[in-house]
Design brief:
Layout lengths: L4 E2 L9 H8 L1 H12 L4 H18 L5 H36 L1 H10 L5 H19 L4 H12 L4 H11 L7 H18 L3 H12 L3 H17 L1 H6 L1 H21 L5 H19 L23 H26 L6 E5 L4 E4 L2 E4 L1 E3 L8 E2 L3 E5 L4 H18 L6 H33 L1 H9 L6 H16 L2 H19 L3 H12 L7 H10 L6 H28 L9
Parallel strand pairs: 1-5
Antiparallel strand pairs: 2-7, 3-4, 5-6
Helix pairs in contact: 1-18, 2-3, 3-4, 3-17, 4-9, 4-16, 4-17, 5-15, 6-7, 6-8, 6-9, 6-11, 6-13, 6-14, 7-8, 7-22, 8-11, 8-22, 8-23, 9-10, 9-20, 9-21, 10-13, 10-21, 11-13, 13-14, 15-16, 17-20, 18-20, 19-20, 19-21, 19-23, 20-21, 21-23, 22-23
Length: 563
């Protein structure tokens, strides 16, 4: 076919290993600029995208028009639906802060117990997961760390606890955007539709992380108070972990990724609150002399507390209603078409210009590049609708009418540079996928053979360490992991999901999160100390994720969706 581009996987001296090393240069540029030069993330992403485009054209011989087509498609996908979801998720969170509902919930949690061990569970694990599920973007660490410090926790210890707790919820953070992004990138690679791919990934991640959701609460309390004092609050540890894990498993497999964190965290908060009505530890442990800031002793009326939690209930109900409407096949406003310049007319129909080649596929196959604008049932649109519904309640209780527009404008200013970063990160991934660079790296990684599932977790961890984001790690390495799995004869859904599950264990050591944690407790300049205290936990939890992936690949394959 005239103008068709057939991927080559060994363009550098006819060698796959050498080609893989060159293909890794965009990621290396990104890593060096972020971790070493400490360049602003959006600038690093632009540099990485430029490097990927140059290599795709000069080394992988992809025509310039196709390079531009892939790059702009990645940017468009980064804007819709990814940035659209992130923008409205953070807006919902900002709206609850502006209305005072967030502070009401925070005060309600602080009053539940004086025991530091249970406070750590409530604030770092349960409430941190709720903030992660709604907003993400470092907010959970900053908020939970500062809350713990305000309750009297030693500042660096508060940051460490917040960082370690911000693990098992991360893959479903910000209305499930890491899994949603990964599903959109993997669907064309696997030849499946986006919805079914996303659901399969959600189910697979949901069959990995619940094990850690049970472990992390106990892990937190052991870090804080030691093993013996953890046994003293074992009912609270089990209530928090088992309730979160059970709902996380059920929601990720039955509902989808969007509400998993929100439902699981609310269930965990509710389970702990109910437990504390009938049980308290034999001895209230305050962890030594208090160093707390003056405590906010205001007691909100019960009706005000109910209203504050009702705002989060509105979010859940609106998203569930939107998903149900979409499943029922109700009319939606959407546009789906081949992406410009990536297709050509052949025998009266359009056909993709990019072709994948063996051994990535069994025979030369077209690699479609299309774009879908799904207006009404996008998670971002549903969250915006929930925000509007919640604001109507706020208006009834005296919120100023201008608060909605003012808060949205402020959120746009807050996220303007992260949105640019997301767009260019997606551009890097799409250019690498469609030029064949990702496949060159996958063929080299396939040489790890039997141990590849174990290393999958560490690849994901590396991605989050470099970028500070499970979404970005899934963007950069998810397609690589899935392609490597296909070449190795393993399940690509398992490999891609392990990238996300392993990635969350790197969140606690990413420079961005370390800075957020230190700033949240007033310990700027002590990031190195915090890093030394969390690096061992990150490596241990990542290793456990890798071992779990190997068991699922070779011993318990029935855990993989579709098996």
């Amino acid at each position: 076919m005239t103008g068709a581009f057939h991927q080559a996987y060994d363009p550098v001296a006819g060698s796959v290993p050498l080609s893989a090393l060159v293909a890794a240069l965009p990621l290396l540029v990104l890593a060096l600029l972020l971790a070493v030069a400490r360049v602003a993330p959006w600038k690093a992403a632009v540099a990485g995208a430029g490097t990927a485009a140059a290599l795709a054209g000069l080394v992988w011989r992809m025509p310039a028009v196709l390079v531009a087509s892939a790059a702009t498609h990645g940017m468009a996908f980064g804007l819709w639906p990814i940035s659209w979801v992130c923008l409205n998720a953070v807006f919902f969170y900002n709206l609850t802060v502006a209305s005072g509902d967030f502070d009401v919930v925070r005060r309600a949690l602080a009053r539940l117990t004086e025991d530091r061990r249970i406070q750590a569970l409530l604030v770092a694990f349960c409430f941190g997961a709720l903030v992660e599920g709604i907003a993400g973007f470092g907010a959970p660490v900053a908020i939970s760390a500062s809350m713990l410090a305000g309750l009297g926790f030693e500042p660096v210890s508060a940051a460490v606890l917040a960082l370690v707790a911000n693990t098992s919820p991360v893959a479903f953070g910000s209305i499930g955007i890491p899994v949603v992004t990964l599903g959109g990138l993997l669907a064309p690679i696997l030849g499946r539709d986006v919805a079914s791919t996303t659901r399969a990934l959600s189910s697979m991640v949901g069959r990995q992380l619940p094990l850690f959701s049970v472990l992390v609460p106990a892990y937190l309390v052991v870090l804080l108070a030691g093993f013996r004092r953890t046994l003293e609050v074992l009912p609270a540890v089990l209530a928090a972990g088992l309730s979160f894990a059970g709902v996380q498993l059920a929601a990720s497999n039955l509902v989808g990724p969007e509400l998993t964190d929100i439902l699981a965290s609310l269930a965990s908060l509710g389970a702990l609150a109910l437990l504390l009505r009938v049980w308290t530890p034999a001895e209230v442990w305050r962890g030594g002399s208090p160093t707390a800031e003056p405590r906010d002793e205001r007691r909100d009326p019960p009706r005000r507390v109910v209203r504050a939690f009702a705002v989060y209930a509105i979010l859940v109900l609106v998203v569930l209603a939107g998903q149900a409407a979409a499943s029922a096949g109700l009319r939606n406003v959407k546009w789906e078409a081949p992406w410009p310049a990536s297709y050509a007319a052949v025998d009266g129909r359009t056909a993709p210009l990019v072709h994948r080649e063996p051994p990535i596929v069994a025979a030369s196959s077209p690699y479609p590049l299309s774009y879908r604008l799904d207006v009404l049932t996008s998670a971002g649109t549903l969250v915006l609708g929930a925000s509007a519904a919640a604001f109507l309640v706020m208006l009834a209780f005296g919120a100023p009418p201008a608060a909605f527009a003012v808060t949205y404008a402020g959120t746009l200013r807050q996220l303007r540079l992260p949105i640019v970063t997301i767009a260019f990160i997606l551009s890097i991934a799409t250019v690498m996928n469609y030029s064949g660079m990702t496949s060159s790296m996958a063929l080299a990684l396939a040489e790890t053979g039997f141990l590849f599932p174990f290393f999958s977790a560490f690849i994901g961890m590396l991605g989050v360490f470099l970028t500070g984001s499970d979404t970005s790690s899934n963007t950069l390495f998810g397609p690589l992991q899935a392609t490597t799995a296909k070449v190795s004869g393993l399940d690509p859904i398992l490999a891609a999901a392990t990238n996300s599950s392993g990635g969350v264990m790197g969140k606690m050591i990413s420079p961005q999160n370390l800075s957020v944690g230190a700033a949240g407790v007033g310990a700027v300049g002590r990031e190195g100390e915090i890093f030394r205290r969390v690096i061992g936990h990150s490596l241990l939890l990542t290793s456990l994720t890798g071992l779990l992936a190997m068991l699922q690949a070779y011993v318990f394959p029935w855990m993989i969706p579709g098996r």
